[in-house]
């Protein structure tokens, strides 16, 4: 699970909540106002359909019956850095005139799709997906599949015998889409029929999640308890939050108990419909947890994002999301200083990020932001008095140019000057495996 930090409106009280497993980390840190998470990608989705529950078949069930209807849609996921959850979803693609879109794998009956959290699969390496069998057991090797995530086309890894590959992932919404090719054998050496797979469906158009509605999650708490069920209610429909290593997010607040290992798991209603993907929670307070809703007014619901990732994916490219650009991997904060001005400084640098590799450090004070060409010739320069000055430089960047930050940092005994160069690259895919 991701760490989540929240600043309440109309109060100076700071609430810090954290929950994570594996690829995420436990963090309890103050969140200051006026942060800017330096963001990034570019795209347009093709026509993608999520199959919904037929209105004529839709009926509210008891919790036990609803769990029985959907429990086999929940999968456990392990990576080289941890463990979490995912949901098998029922997606279909419309045929398009564009032959590059009408890729055979998008219409292969042996291919099924799994939604999980981007932070669960953020990195290269092997991955395993554990699907519950007819007895809801996660130990049947006929239902366990190996995969690989890296910077090569999915077909490369499939040719090496990996059944699970990445379709695409989106850092900003924390949603990733995986492809499971049942034409490739499970770890048992046997092939699993697609007819034995149970897929989750989402609500039909017009369905509105209600505050106080009874919901439940199915996930893999602790990374070793797959298929675990937890019940609760929808506490708040769209809560603005700040999630560690992601930044600003709008999420559904739920009272459902959400533990480390639940990242990417399904949140369901009593109609047996998938209405959320659990992704953030806390260690300091009970009954304050969060999920990514199926639809959001800002367009970052898991349905909208997964549709773009699936729709834009091609044989040799990851899928991507419209309007995204590369994540440089740092956050800056501004605070008033003694002279009634502001000090702008680096408040976080993500490990292994563009910023970290360039040499940017925590608490670096930013004095100047520049844009330089590929030969590092300065094209534009912005004196940094507020966060907005850095934002101006970010917005003016083009692919292939450098974002250059200059300022001061604390040395061992003195204050030193620094200059860092970060190349701006448009990721036409997700940032996973890059």
In brief:
The protein is mostly beta strands and 434 residues long. The protein is built from 5 helices and 24 strands.
Task: From the structure above, extract its key features.
eight-stranded mixed sheet, 2 domains, mainly beta, Thrombin, subunit H, single chain, seven-stranded antiparallel sheet, 434 residues, globular
Structural summary, described in words:
- The protein is mainly beta.
- The chain folds into two domains: 1-35 and 45-316, Thrombin, subunit H, CATH 2.40.10.120; 330-423, Pdz3 Domain, CATH 2.30.42.
- 9% of the residues lie in helices and 37% in strands.
- The protein is built from five helices and 24 strands.
- It has helices at 63-70, 154-158, 302-312, 354-358, 387-396; strands at 2-7, 14-17, 35-37, 48-50, 74-79, 82-89, 91-93, 111-117, 125-130, 144-149, 164-170, 175-181, 214-219, 228-243, 247-254, 266-269, 274-281, 289-293, 330-336, 342-349, 365-372, 378-383, 402-410, 415-423.
- The longest helix is centred in the C-terminal third of the chain and has 11 residues, at 302-312.
- 47% of the residues are buried.
List the SSEs and their pairings:
Blueprint: E1 2-7, E2 14-17, E3 35-37, E4 48-50, H1 63-70, E5 74-79, E6 82-89, E7 91-93, E8 111-117, E9 125-130, E10 144-149, H2 154-158, E11 164-170, E12 175-181, E13 214-219, E14 228-243, E15 247-254, E16 266-269, E17 274-281, E18 289-293, H3 302-312, E19 330-336, E20 342-349, H4 354-358, E21 365-372, E22 378-383, H5 387-396, E23 402-410, E24 415-423
Parallel strand pairs: 1-17
Antiparallel strand pairs: 1-2, 1-14, 3-19, 4-7, 5-6, 5-9, 6-8, 8-12, 9-10, 11-12, 13-14, 13-16, 14-15, 15-18, 16-17, 17-18, 19-20, 21-22, 21-23, 23-24
